[in-house]
Model the fold of this input.
Amino acid sequence: MMTSVDTELIRVLGDPLRLKIVTLLARETLCTTHLVEETGAKQTNLSNHLRVLREAGVVETEPCGRFTYYKLCPGVITQLADQFAELAASARNAAENKRACP
Done:
């Protein structure tokens, strides 16, 4: 049975800067300074986006001295990918399930 796609997570990842952050963190764990350099975003703007990602469970923090490192939580991305895979499987079967008009 198909589950629904997590719309809140889609909303969180739908922002271009947050998606860029997730893409960067998929490659390596980075601190805020690295993320500012890589994205070109202002630190305050970036911090707000990181807070949203943290609250959604997409990233987690790792303190290291005076820096805070961020790493991606791959389980959240895997869960979303599984939901889309189920949606795609349902779509393949939908061609056979044509509802008759009244």
